[in-house]
Amino acid sequence: MRSLLKRHQIPIFFALTLIMGWLPWYTGRGGLVIAAPTLAGLIVTAIAEGKAGLLALLKRMIRWRAHGGWYILVLLTPVLTSLVAVGVHVLLGGKAPQFPLLKQNQHMILLTFVFYLLPWQSSAFLEEIGLRGYAQERVQKRWGPLVGTLVLGAFFGAWLLPEFLNPESNQAAMGGLGFYPWFILTEIGWSVIMAWVYNKTGKSALVSGYLFHTAFNVWPFVLLTNAVPGEALPAFDTRLFIVNAVIVALAATILVMATKGQLGYTADAQA
Description:
The protein is mainly alpha-helical and 271 residues long.
């Protein structure tokens, strides 16, 4: 089994994620298991690489030593993309959000960040141990930094399909299945930028995954919607989210061109 897993780690990781993540939803016994990517990554690593592999994964998740500029970049890049999306949306005749948190409840922005960072509440934490901590390094080595990241990014968006069928989810509020392809495009775009940050911060899944994922969960909620935590979820402006998807994808495309598709990757760097 170990030999089989070593040869086919990534497909098995993808399959395990879908089986463990979708099975309760598919059988009607629960919703999406958001921690499935992490559970799959830990299982595959433990069987294929043993204690050494698990230790390397842990090191990537707690690797915090990076220049302060990278922390600023991951925390504020979603602010920039969201504001550009709002500007383009308005220029195209759309209506800007009312920014209720910025105008009246600024303290709630910090509290929302803290809430999204709590490991037992955070989709970023529950997904990123598997996606960036486990998978990013392996897809780069197997398919190269660009193709590998595009594959991982597409999976990152596509595996959340059950959330688009849940009428109470943020994904349903974005536009449901009609927005699903645009959501996948958004996650591909973010994954490209995350891969660059991952490679440039010494393979830090903490900075490029957990923190970055938290930032682009929180800031679009604050800047692209009229939602207020604790209140009923209002309808989102689907066209604004489509514009945001295009902006994120364009930012990723510029980064691909600037790095000539390497995204900061060097095969001999510390993993």
